[in-house]
Amino acid sequence: MKTRSAFTSHACVPRGGPPAEVPSGPPRVFGPPVPIPVGAGRAAMDALLAGLTFHRFDIAVADLEAAREFYTVALGVEVWQSRALAGTVWRRGQAVPLAGTLVAEGTLGSGFVRLVEPAAGHTVAREALERRGEGLFAIGYQVDDPVTALGAALAAGTAVEQLGPDPVHPAEIYLDGGSGLLFGLLHRDASALV
């Protein structure tokens, strides 16, 4: 299903996508902070989300088995695919191992819901669980080229929270659009990470 961003009415800067002076080359993800006008992240997310395909909701949970039981009833998800994650993601410039993180994915309409029981590492799921408790922390959208989408988001001032598995060619990117929820850019052909 195609989406239209809900941020249109909340953006404090004009719409129209990234500025014309987008630098060439690979995007610089974790650099020194640059002053960004208030609302720039929302405008960037609005431009970026226009026309993307919804893929999944990510929900941070403390106990995967208990959450599966709850969401089977609450959302009507009857079949779950569970697995343990491995590898590394990059969070604010630091490598964070995923070992010990458990996930369960279930079909919800034309998309998915993914329950994430994070390990002790400082991932976006762990931070969401510690700060706000169990619940929705990200909405994921499929993209054909995550690096291009990341470059456009960075040029417009959107903060990158986490990416992986490779910081140069990520298959999954979590962005902070300023709404309290993270937005995931997920490579259309890659298997999911956290």
Description of the structure:
This protein is of the alpha+beta class. It has one domain: 2,3-Dihydroxybiphenyl 1,2-Dioxygenase, domain 1 (Roll). It is built from four helices and ten strands. α1 runs antiparallel to α4. The protein is globular, with a radius of gyration of 16 Å. The N terminus is likely disordered.
What are its keywords?
disordered N terminus, alpha+beta, 4 helices, ten-stranded mixed β-sheet, 21% helix, 10 strands, 194 residues, globular, 2,3-Dihydroxybiphenyl 1,2-Dioxygenase, domain 1
Topology, pairings included?
Layout (H helix, E strand, L loop, with lengths): L39 H10 L3 E8 L3 H12 L4 E5 L3 E4 L2 E4 L4 E7 L2 E7 L6 H9 L2 E9 L2 H10 L3 E6 L7 E5 L5 E6 L7
Parallel strand pairs: 1-6, 7-10
Antiparallel strand pairs: 1-7, 2-5, 3-4, 3-8, 5-6, 8-9, 9-10
Helix pairs in contact: 1-4
How much helicity do the residues have? 10-25%
The oligomeric state is single chain
Residue fraction in strands: 25-35%
Biggest sheet, open or closed, and with what strands and sense?
Answer: 10 strands, mixed
Distance between the termini: 22 Å
Q: How is the CATH topology named? A: 2,3-Dihydroxybiphenyl 1,2-Dioxygenase, domain 1
Shape: globular
Rg result: 16 Å
CATH A-level architecture: Roll
- The ordered H/E elements are HEHEEEEEHEHEEE
Give the strand tally: 10
Our count of domains comes out at 1
CATH homology superfamily? 2,3-Dihydroxybiphenyl 1,2-Dioxygenase, domain 1
What is the top-level CATH class?
Answer: Alpha Beta
Q: Summarize model confidence as the mean pLDDT.
A: 79
* Class computed from helices, strands and strand pairing: alpha+beta
Strand order of the largest sheet: 2-5-6-1-7-10-9-8-3-4
Count of helical stretches:
4
Q: Detail the poorly predicted runs.
A: 1-38
